[in-house]
Design goal:
- By secondary structure, the protein is an alpha/beta fold.
- The protein is 37% helix and 21% strand.
- The chain contains 15 helices and 19 strands.
- The strands form three sheets. The protein has an eight-stranded mixed β-sheet with strand order 15-14-16-13-11-12-10-17, sandwiched between helices. Strands 1-8-6-5-4-9-19 form a seven-stranded mixed beta barrel. It has a four-stranded mixed β-sheet with strand order 7-3-2-18, with no helix packed on it.
- Helix 1 runs antiparallel to helix 14, helix 9 crosses helix 11 and helix 14 crosses helix 15.
- The longest helix is centred in the first third of the chain and has 27 residues.
- The radius of gyration is 34 Å and the shape is elongated.
- The N terminus is likely disordered.
């Protein structure tokens, strides 16, 4: 009996230690137990140009949420600022970025009107008020972000009830002077993703299809060729949202419809023209039209010399009454005169205006502003048809966040198709200057609005940043199949993007929003739980072994004296 007591004490102590350990585990988990919501987020692009870094350089996020209502002089190095586009202060954001002020991260909330996956909801809600002002603010923000090196994570998300409720709570806390910290609690924003990695040797893919002209017996000369070209890929602040409905989805849609119309004419030998038609869907457009350059270099000299002229289609989906033809050769050039007069005559019949813009190219300058300049560098006559009167800067207006389906006018694309198709047909069949409508409405050769709408909808839901498109991407396969349906000799060319551009992955993620308790609350909870367990433990010892045993647990044991022999 005398030896059972130490064993009993040991068991009681082990039970006590286990309960105390359990308390610490529970307290440690308090901060992670109350998940408020999960939000889809889209990371700001990360890329290098000739080794110079741009965009957001980090992806992982684990900081408390804050708003623009923070107290002056507050330390934001561990705070993620949630900034709705409707409340954007571009001067504040620009100051923080350009002055390299410490910040835990940025989360921009965009109205649903800019959501490529939720267009119908955006239309049905009251989200279109002041949309032009929002577009201008977002365009200015995007321009700032893509040309800056930002050493912390930057994400975009779309407004919804959950994230707006979180933001409202954060604003209330900030307004009362109690921003979220480890001691005060609040909301914590967490994104856990692998560290961004370089995209090794990104591929760009060009697709071409031919419609062969009618060659008479005994004619040994090669038929002349007219090329219709459009670049299909995009670039924007958020690669996972860069759909470029206008730039250059509208040009791709127009090219496919023009190919469909001429395939009907060329399917009958009686209406087949004495010109070959070359349709080219090129990649690498935002990167100095790198894909167009490599596509043209793949032609032999005889093929290039057979091109009478090329028409490049760029951003033709949101104009009202004016289009521009951009050329590199002087307006006095006979070929340029012929092209411009042909388009002007048809434009007048359609009730629209076409202007001519001449810009000389500098061979020593690697910057290529328009796609036709790649043709001009190889001495091939070419022009670009666009609603833009001035070429955009590098990596700008090539699929931005504001370039979505709600801002593209199908009627503008239909008029553009009529303009190009009629002008080409009159040149091919020798009807220049004649008021003959080959693609008349309500005829078998009429432009198909349903075809244009379906392809425009698809392009407006498909991000197309070239480094993130694989060789066998379903979208590329869809373009190839569509050209095969309307043209002959469809070829696909895979090339590696110019090495001066480097891109990094991790373009979208899930943001976990946790509502966390303050350290004060954690300590109070620990104190309550600890007190409860001590009382419970004392009660169990007294009722089972007596008060003396409980007192002996806390009494210092007598020291043992070592007897020397």
């Amino acid at each position: 009996m005398a030896q059972a007591k130490p064993g009993g004490e040991r068991q009681v102590l082990e039970s006590m230690y286990s309960m105390i350990a359990l308390v610490f585990v529970l307290v440690a988990c308090v901060e992670l137990c109350d998940a408020a919501t999960v939000v889809d987020v889209y990371r700001l692009i990360q890329y290098d140009i000739s080794g110079a870094p741009f965009g957001s350089r980090l992806a992982n996020l684990n900081h408390h949420a804050g708003s623009l209502h923070f107290a002056p002089g507050a330390d934001l190095s561990r705070t993620v600022l949630i900034i709705p586009l409707r409340e954007l202060n571009i001067s504040f954001v620009k100051g923080y970025i350009t002055q390299n002020q410490p910040l835990g991260g940025l989360l921009f909330l965009l109205p649903q009107i800019f959501n490529i996956e939720n267009r119908e909801r955006a239309k049905s809600n009251h989200q279109t008020d002041g949309v032009e002002l929002l577009k201008n603010d977002l365009a200015e923000l995007e321009k700032l972000l893509i040309h800056s090196k930002i050493p912390y994570p930057v994400y975009f998300a779309f407004e919804d009830d959950d994230i707006e409720a979180v933001l409202a709570d954060v604003k209330r806390n900030d307004a009362t002077g109690q921003p979220a910290t480890a001691t005060t609690g609040g909301y914590k924003l967490v994104v856990s993703v692998p560290e961004p990695k370089k995209r090794a040797s990104p591929t760009i893919t060009n697709i071409q299809g031919w419609l062969s002209g009618l060659k008479t017996d005994g004619d040994a000369n090669q038929l002349p060729t007219i090329a219709i070209v459009a670049s299909y890929d995009t670039f924007g602040a958020a690669p996972a949202l860069s759909v470029g409905s206008d730039s250059n989805g509208s040009g791709v849609v127009a090219l496919l419809e023009i190919a469909r119309l001429f395939s009907v004419l060329y399917s009958n030998p009686k209406t087949r023209g004495r010109y070959n038609l070359l349709f080219g869907l090129t990649s690498g457009g935002p990167y100095n039209y790198n894909g167009t350059h490599k596509w043209l270099r793949s032609f032999d000299q005889r093929q290039r010399e057979s091109i009478d002229y090329a028409i490049c289609l760029n951003s033709i989906g949101s104009w009202d009454n004016d289009l521009w033809i951009h050329v590199s050769k002087p307006p006095e050039n006979a070929y340029i005169k012929q092209i411009f007069e042909g388009f002007s005559n048809v434009a007048e019949e359609l009730g629209v205006k076409v202007g001519l813009k001449h810009k000389k190219i500098n061979i020593s300058n690697p910057r290529v502003a328009w796609e036709h300049e790649q043709f001009s560098r190889l001495r091939v006559t070419a022009a670009t048809l666009s609603e833009l009167s001035v070429a955009p800067e590098l990596l700008e207006s090539t699929g931005s966040l504001v370039d979505g389906r709600p801002f593209v006018n199908e009627a503008a694309i239909i008029k553009s198709v009529k303009l190009v198709a009629e002008s080409l047909a009159r040149h091919i069949y020798g009807h220049e200057g004649k008021n003959i409508q080959i693609f008349a409405d309500n005829s078998s050769l009429a432009v198909n609005p349903s075809y244009i709408k379906s392809w425009l909808d698809l392009l407006s839901q498909t991000p197309r940043v070239a480094p993130f498109l694989s060789k066998n991407d379903p979208f590329i396969m869809a373009l190839k199949k569509e050209l095969e349906d309307h043209t002959d000799e469809v070829n696909v060319q895979h090339e590696v993007l110019d090495g001066m551009f480097t891109f990094y992955d991790s373009t979208r993620a899930s943001l976990n929003v946790y509502q966390v308790a303050s350290v004060t609350f954690d300590l109070l909870l620990l104190l309550v739980l600890g007190s409860y367990l001590i009382v419970l433990f004392s009660f169990l010892v007294i009722t089972t072994r007596g008060l003396d045993d409980l007192i002996s647990l806390f009494r210092r044991p007598p020291s043992r004296k070592v007897k020397t022999a």
